[in-house]
């Protein structure tokens, strides 16, 4: 049943991830890099990679934004370690080994919708180097590991993945020599920390900016929170109509507006039995 729920979540939010961008970049790259992959049990630790290792807090979307360069339009954070075995699981566990041949436990992705740049920050367990790479260059003391087709890693906690230009910008932001993204500061001010799934969108048709999260309430209930910056009148109307008859779908609504209607925050809760209703509640 979890996989059925997961497929619906995938349809709703994974299109916002850079997952397909990076996976496509890895396809057929085995001839481009040195064959250094190995089984995770035998893989060396991060210490085999010289230079500075990236280090930053990454337990939420807010943490990821703190080292994200300006100009990103969409971002997503997933804590796989907390979604496993729950209705929020939207993946096969083997997929979490795809990039690194070791488990990806949390993941942050940010990108520009034009496709001009994007990156991921991934926390791994265990932190080992079990993948194909070539040490191509370094930037401000960080080793750039070439993965093929224009994609690089910078080892650390989290490990960075992306094109070299974007990764250099991330290093600059983390070192304090370049400003972090502040495009989402206003909407993020209304986010309550702690959700397993967090998504930011500045390119959809419901509002100027749109925040979406899914959260395990740890009491048999799940919640979905959506926050809209400058929502369209049609978005507000749709929320009101769905809220008016939400009990028929066994959903509980808590809707608030702030800043003279500039911010619309909608929290919808359902128990596990009605989780499917929660996921399919859409305001388009």
TrEMBL record:
The keyword Transmembrane helix applies. It comes from the Archaea. The chain crosses the membrane at residues 7-27. Keywords: Membrane, Transmembrane, Transmembrane helix. This is Uncharacterized protein. It comes from Methanolobus vulcani.
């Amino acid at each position: 049943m979890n996989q059925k729920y997961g497929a619906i979540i995938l349809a709703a939010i994974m299109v916002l991830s850079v997952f397909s961008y990076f996976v496509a970049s890895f396809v057929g790259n085995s001839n481009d890099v040195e064959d250094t992959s190995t089984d995770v049990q035998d893989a060396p630790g991060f210490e085999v990679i010289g230079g500075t290792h990236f280090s930053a807090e990454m337990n939420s979307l807010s943490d990821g934004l703190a080292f994200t360069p300006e100009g990103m339009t969409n971002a997503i954070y997933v804590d796989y370690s907390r979604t496993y075995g729950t209705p929020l699981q939207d993946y096969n566990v083997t997929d979490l080994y795809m990039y690194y041949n070791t488990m990806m436990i949390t993941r942050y992705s940010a990108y520009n919708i034009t496709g001009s740049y994007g990156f991921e920050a991934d926390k791994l367990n265990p932190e080992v180097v079990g993948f194909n790479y070539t040490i191509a260059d370094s930037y401000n003391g960080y080793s750039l590991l070439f993965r093929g087709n224009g994609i690089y890693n910078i080892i650390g906690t989290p490990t960075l993945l992306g094109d070299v230009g974007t990764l250099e910008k991330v290093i600059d932001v983390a070192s304090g020599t370049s400003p972090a993204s502040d495009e989402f500061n206003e909407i993020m001010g209304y986010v309550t920390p702690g959700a397993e799934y967090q998504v930011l969108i500045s390119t959809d048709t419901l509002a100027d900016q749109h925040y979406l999260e899914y959260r395990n309430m740890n009491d048999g209930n799940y919640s979905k929170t959506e926050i809209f910056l400058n929502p369209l009148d049609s978005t507000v109307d749709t929320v009101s109509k769905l809220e008016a008859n939400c009990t028929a779908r066994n959903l509980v609504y808590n809707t608030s507006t702030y800043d003279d209607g500039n911010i619309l925050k909608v929290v919808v809760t359902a128990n596990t039995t009605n989780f499917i209703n929660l996921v399919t509640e859409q305001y388009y």
